[in-house]
């Protein structure tokens, strides 16, 4: 990098084709980086800086400077003074700092930050990010899907063409979404008085009690204050967060979402569309009740005092006490948290989460996901449960998700999928009308049988016996000498460590032995894959695996695709790494591989039966 420093006077410094470092010093200087990745520092005076081609860094420092990034992805920082910054082509970052600055992004996806002063930010073409929090600013997104945020002062925000997001705070702002599908985000949580957001007669227009006016937006996302707010949505899909206080929240047309905490009693009207109420009740000192009435115009009263009208879905996080939540005809998300809770999803495809305590969980009609116990990850905060649950999936195809890792003895759970039949697990949990399982079992010896649909069952520790039955199942043994049976369907069986027995059953199954200990593998009917992903997945000698029913006519293959090998038939090893051979000995066929090139077998698997293998039997 070539460094050129100017004099105390007015200098003109021009770089070359390489990476230059040009420093103007005192005076009104003109610096031109030309080609290369250059750094230009104006220092004192009213300077002009031109980055030229390449990725350039331009710093005006003191004075009223003009910075031009030109071609390339550039960084422009005006410093002190009233500066003009032009990004030009490329994805540029422009920072105004103090003073009344003007920032123009130009082409590309640019990021503009105004700083202090009354600034003008113009993103130009591309998907730009414009941000300012001080002064009375003008922010213009231009063409492209822009994100524009100015939370301080009284500002003018214009999205321009594209699908834009325009965010404001508690000032008196003028917001115009422009063309496209635009979202206004209003955050009033720092106000020390209540706020009112009311739609105008013109579609997409709103008036705010702070003096803000909004037009040409298709949806709003508004967070209220800690006082008694009135927030009314429009025709789009709106998000309305009331905050503290006793609020009046109205969704209008569209599929709206309302968010609530325990600090207030709100009146909520979803209006037209499919609307959802998100409620967090964790701070209450007693249990809560919410029984949703989805009759058009009917009022649901929550035990906190909040009322719901024209709301179709509940999404509730309960208290640490005994709660009762009943959903409606749509998709509900009910989390009992701690306590002995009663959860009823009603109709629809629901997510029901019992949490800690002895819970009663009823799925109702629809294809439901039922979390009877601790499982990770979750959509809610949780504590590990200790309890006995009563679970009824109701109509539809329901899945129970549960983690029994906290039990101090092995789990026995043999699912009975006969309609109306009840399965009682060894820990006392009862399960009715559940068609499929997703279970993490204990660190002890478990016996688990799934249903007729797609199960996901993991045994964890000790010697487990897991039967997937029908459906496309995933069975995992973990440590211990496990017996995994896929049953009908296209199953994935993974024994992990220990001397395991894997039986695929009917269907095109994948069997993964994955350790150096001796496993017994049976694919059953169908085109099965016996998978070895690492060279040390198969042992040798007495530790080698045995495949009892390898069938070329069924399309079985031994999958060694992550082990680099070359098939050489029945020939002897030649001391070349990666050779794969077989030999027929008695009633068996022995497959072996020399991974390291020492002419000895590093990997072996025995196939019962005298089988003439070809390269097509391996993948």
From TrEMBL:
Biased composition (Basic and acidic residues): 27-37
InterPro entries linked: Hemolysin-typ_Ca-bd_CS (IPR018511), Hemolysn_Ca-bd (IPR001343), RTX_toxin/Mannuronan_C5-epim (IPR050557), Serralysin-like_metalloprot_C (IPR011049)
Primary location: secreted
Keywords: Secreted
GO molecular function, one term: calcium ion binding
Protein name: Calcium-binding protein
Localization terms from the record: Secreted
GO cellular component: a single term: extracellular region
Pfam families reported for this sequence: HemolysinCabind (PF00353)
Annotated region (Disordered), positions in chain: 1-45, 142-177
């Amino acid at each position: 990098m070539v460094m050129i420093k100017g004099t105390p006077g007015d200098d003109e410094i021009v770089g070359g084709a390489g990476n230059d470092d040009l420093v103007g010093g005192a005076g009104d200087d003109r610096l031109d980086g030309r080609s290369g990745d250059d750094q230009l520092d104006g220092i004192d005076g009213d300077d002009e800086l031109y980055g030229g081609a390449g990725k350039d860094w331009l710093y005006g420092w003191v004075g009223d400077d003009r910075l031009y990034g030109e071609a390339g992805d550039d960084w422009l920082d005006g410093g002190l003074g009233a500066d003009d910054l032009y990004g030009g082509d490329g994805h540029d970052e422009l920072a105004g700092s103090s003073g009344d600055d003007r920032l123009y992004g130009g082409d590309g996806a640019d990021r503009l930050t105004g700083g202090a002063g009354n600034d003008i930010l113009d993103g130009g073409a591309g998907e730009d990010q414009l941000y300012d929090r001080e002064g009375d600013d003008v922010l213009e997104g231009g063409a492209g899907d822009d994100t524009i945020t100015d939370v301080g002062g009284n500002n003018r925000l214009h999205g321009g063409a594209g699908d834009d997001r325009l965010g404001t705070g508690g000032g008196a702002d003028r917001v115009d979404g422009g063309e496209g599908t635009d979202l206004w985000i209003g955050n009033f949580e720092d106000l020390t008085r209540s706020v009112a957001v009311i739609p105008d007669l013109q579609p997409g227009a709103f008036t705010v009690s702070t003096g803000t006016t909004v037009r040409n937006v298709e949806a709003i996302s508004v967070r209220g204050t800690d006082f008694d707010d009135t927030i009314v949505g429009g025709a789009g899909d709106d998000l309305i967060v009331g905050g503290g206080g006793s609020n009046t929240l109205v969704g209008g047309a569209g599929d709206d979402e309302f968010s609530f905490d325990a600090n207030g009693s709100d009146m909520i009207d979803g209006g037209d569309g499919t609307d959802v109420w998100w409620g967090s009740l964790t701070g209450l000192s007693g249990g809560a009740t919410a029984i949703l009435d989805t009759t058009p115009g009917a009022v649901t009263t929550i035990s906190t005092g909040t009322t719901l009208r024209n709301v179709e879905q509940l999404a509730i996080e309960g208290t640490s006490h005994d709660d009762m939540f009943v959903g409606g005809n749509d998709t509900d998300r009910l989390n009992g948290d701690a306590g002995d809770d009663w959860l009823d999803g009603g109709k629809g495809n629901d997510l029901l989460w019992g949490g800690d305590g002895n819970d009663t969980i009823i799925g109702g009609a629809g294809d439901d996901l039922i979390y009877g116990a601790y499982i990770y990850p979750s959509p809610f905060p949780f504590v590990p449960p200790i309890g006995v649950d009563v679970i009824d999936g109701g109509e539809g195809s329901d899945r129970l998700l549960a983690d029994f890792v906290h039990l101090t003895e092995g789990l026995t759970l043999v699912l009975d999928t006969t309609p109306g039949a009840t399965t009682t697990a060894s820990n006392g949990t009862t399960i009715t009308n559940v068609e499929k399982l997703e279970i993490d079992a204990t660190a002890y010896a478990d016996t688990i049988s799934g249903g007729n649909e797609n199960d996901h069952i993991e045994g964890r520790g000790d010697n487990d016996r897991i039967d997937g039955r029908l459906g496309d199942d995933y069975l995992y043994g973990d440590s211990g000498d496990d017996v995994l049976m896929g049953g009908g369907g296209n199953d994935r069986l993974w024994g992990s460590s220990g001397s395991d027995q894997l039986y695929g059953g009917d269907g095109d199954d994948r069997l993964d032995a994955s350790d150096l200990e001796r496993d017994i593998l049976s694919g059953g009917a169908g085109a099965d894959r016996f998978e070895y992903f690492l060279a040390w997945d198969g042992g040798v000698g007495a530790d080698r695996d045995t495949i009892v029913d390898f069938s070329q006519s069924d399309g079985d293959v031994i999958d060694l695709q992550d082990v680099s090998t070359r098939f050489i038939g029945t020939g002897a090893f030649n001391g070349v790494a990666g050779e794969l051979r077989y030999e027929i000995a008695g009633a068996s066929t022995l497959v072996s591989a020399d991974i390291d090139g020492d002419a000895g077998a590093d990997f072996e698997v025995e196939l019962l039966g005298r089988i003439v293998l070809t390269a097509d039997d391996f993948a």
